[in-house]
Specification:
Distance between the termini: 18 Å
CATH superfamily of the largest domain: MetI-like
Number of helices: 11
Radius of gyration: 22 Å
Largest sheet: none
Structural class: mainly alpha
CATH architecture of the largest domain: Orthogonal Bundle
Number of strands: 0
Order of helices and strands: HHHHHHHHHHH
CATH topology of the largest domain: MetI-like fold
Amino acid sequence: MKIDRLWRAALPPTLVLVLFLLLWEGAAAVFHIPKWQLPAPTDIFREGWNGFGRIGPHTLSTLKITLLGFIVGSLTGVVIAVALHLIPGVRQGFYPLLILSQNIPLVALAPLLMIWFGLGLLPKLILITLVCFFPVAVALLDGFSQTDAAMMDYMRMIGASRSQIFRKLELPHAVPFLFSGLKISATYSVMGAVVAEWLGAEKGIGVYMLNARSSYRADRVFVAMFVIVVISLLLFGLISLIEKRTVRWKPKRERQTRR
């Protein structure tokens, strides 16, 4: 029964995707579009198959820095959210600065990080952390603020301390919100890693894309884009799987949405 539901849900977008690829292939053939400008899907698939040995090391390099940056950024987001929630007055002073930090373009910030910290791992890690921490921090703060008020009053009534209320009520309640932020950060981390590689790296999907662009190999650019999408989907799926195995309840608003 569950497989049938999944099949019904996946069939419409799959058909749309197949139709889009067929139209793309047909347009490339009918209008004789140059491969360096817009390659046909078959050309992209052929390049991906034949060039796996070239893009493989770049993919591993990007995956390593993505995972490291995602872990550091997510932990940073958790620490910031807990600090803003528990320390009186800190949220009012620092929350607007968090929002402001997300309005700085990565392409403008990355060169400064390279100047300040060189071309090693550190500036790339800082860049990915800046991309990843915000969704986690905001989602966790939202979870803390939506803790059941009746349960809060009950725990205060029985004499629970502030730390006990946080550990036994607020933090468990915010876990589903945390996973929502982690799923967003996982996709952002890949983007941050590629942008960091554009500005200074020896290997990585970003470097592969720059080399492909400079040699007018649009098919390789599309292959790199496909790899980025696959990495993002795999990270998103892994976090969703962990969430499904560990979280036993969902906020009311999510249950209502599914209905």
